[in-house]
Amino acid sequence: MDIRVLTGVIQESDADAVVISLFEGVTAPEGAARLVDEALNGAVSDLLGAGDFSGASGQVVVLYPRGALPARRVILVGLGKQAELNVETVRRAAAQAALKARDLKVKRLATILHGAGEEGLSAAAAAYAVVEGTRLALYRYQAPRQGEVPPEVETLELIAGEGDAAAVQQAVEQAEAVVAGVMLARDLVNLPPNVCTPSYLAEAATAAADAVGLRVQVLERGQMQALGMNALLAVAQGSETPPRFIILEHNATRAGELPSVVLIGKGITFDTGGYNLKPTESMATMKTDMAGGAAVIGALRAIGALKVPLHVVGLIPAADNMISGRAYRPQEVIRASNGVTIEISNTDAEGRMLLADALVFADRFKPSAVVDIATLTGACLVALGAVAAGLFSTSDALRDVLLAAAEATNEKLWPLPLYPEYEKAIESKVADIQNTGGRTSGVGASAMFLKHFVSYPAWAHIDMAGLAANAKDNPYIPEGATGYGVRLLTEFVRRWTG
């Protein structure tokens, strides 16, 4: 999509469609909507007067100017209550307008900056949200199937005031950088597992690195063996597809002078559960078990494009969890790369095995903060639903910055405790710990397991189970992969001061 920042007034645009908005409860059009209403001889006022449009969030109405305006259509969207205006309001309104425009086969779409102005958002914040909402709503996974490609909106024009144009242009460029990362993550999660293997994930990470100037290194099995990454390798040994350990670095040459942040994403490209085989209905979504890894790749792409002034490392341990004569089994004892021994009580608790060795590896970067993200436990989905990810942290400062980033992006987090009682659940009689804590302490025990591989004071674990795909009631997240975590992690890094 070509995105342009134009100065002027919306009623003079000759686009295929122009977008205006109103708050809920207004009795007469205001701002740009008033100017459009005047040009249309009161058509917007008539909608309000008849009760056919209230301005409620989610409402969309199309008007046809019939020559009264240069534009062929006017798309009117509701913003909800003015007192509740925020960037999420604008994202959703922009998304709803964009989806309506696509339905109408609009090629060129012009829009006001919803909510910008006095007692509202800055023009830059509104523009950022409009671009996010529009671009993310119009995402389509290009599936390998026959048939015509549906028409798309090709051009988006943002109408800004003269004094705001430079700030709006900068906001557009920043939003585009983040959107590109989200779309990359969505593409990776949407791909079938016979395509998106650990090797493919490494190739995609390399391409992302090349696009924005990241350093990339991909470790293969022999290199992982030399590093003692036996927890990761135990999971991978049952698959014909070799594992990969992907390392992305932003500002790699300035690692000694800038604070370091490490982001770790689970990269299980398909999870059968191993010998603790998943039931059919659970296995049907297991191509998404690398969504945490995809989020880290997407976030590093965004961070590189934004030139964030930190040294940021992305680690993606990638493997399949399969069944074969070589697959790891319950009751085996595995020694991780920091020497901790792990009794395998369940082969379907494989993601934490990959994260264990990655968390140990992160220490070499002397990080000011480490955040891992993973589709880790069904217990978290049961606890929070497909609404928020669970957040565990050893640092209140880190937790608070992550929560602020979650609020800004609407990628929700809910803090959960690292109670010492969870340690009891993962005790083992034959090893230092076991890799599950049983049905009644699943999400807390999994976080406590990971803590055994953390040697730095500021660490956070995000369990995004249930958030990888098929979000409900969000107009800028189409069916399929959500890209959850890219915007959250990028915003976190932009806010972290080290």
Summarize the structure.
With 498 residues, the protein is α/β, with parallel strands linked by helices. It has two domains: 2-160, Leucine Aminopeptidase, subunit E, domain 1; 176-495, Aminopeptidase, CATH 3.40.630.
Description:
The protein is of the alpha/beta class and 498 residues long. The protein has two domains: 2-160, Leucine Aminopeptidase, subunit E, domain 1 (3-Layer(aba) Sandwich), CATH 3.40.220.10; 176-495, Zn peptidases (Aminopeptidase, 3-Layer(aba) Sandwich). Helices cover 36% and strands 18% of the residues. The protein has 16 helices and 18 strands. It has helices spanning 31-39, 43-50, 87-103, 123-137, 165-190, 198-212, 221-226, 230-236, 280-283, 291-306, 351-362, 378-384, 396-409, 421-425, 442-451, 486-495, and strands at residues 2-7, 17-22, 60-63, 74-78, 108-111, 155-160, 215-219, 244-250, 260-265, 267-271, 311-321, 333-335, 341-343, 369-374, 389-393, 413-415, 433-434, 459-463. Strands 7, 8, 9, 10, 11, 14, 15, 16 and 18 form a nine-stranded mixed sheet that branches. The chain has a six-stranded mixed sheet with strand order 1-6-5-2-4-3, with helices on both faces. Strands 12-13-17 form a three-stranded mixed sheet. α5 (165-190) packs antiparallel against α10 (291-306), α6 packs parallel to α10 and α8 (230-236) packs antiparallel against α11. The longest helix has 26 residues, at 165-190. It is elongated and about 80 Å long.
What Rg do the Cα atoms give? 24 Å
CATH topology description of the largest domain: Aminopeptidase
Report the portion of residues in β strands: 15-25%
Q: Level of helix content?
A: 25-40%
The termini sit apart by: 36 Å
Number of domains: 2
**What is the averaged pLDDT score?**
96
CATH top level class name of the largest domain: Alpha Beta
> Which structural category do the helix and sheet elements fall into?
alpha/beta
Can you tell me the CATH superfamily of the largest domain? Answer: Zn peptidases
* Approximate shape: elongated
- Per CATH, the architecture of the largest domain is 3-Layer(aba) Sandwich
Write down how many β-strands occur, each being a DSSP E stretch of 2 or more residues: 18
Largest sheet: 9 strands, mixed
Give the uncertain stretches in residue-range form.
none
Q: Helical element count?
A: 16
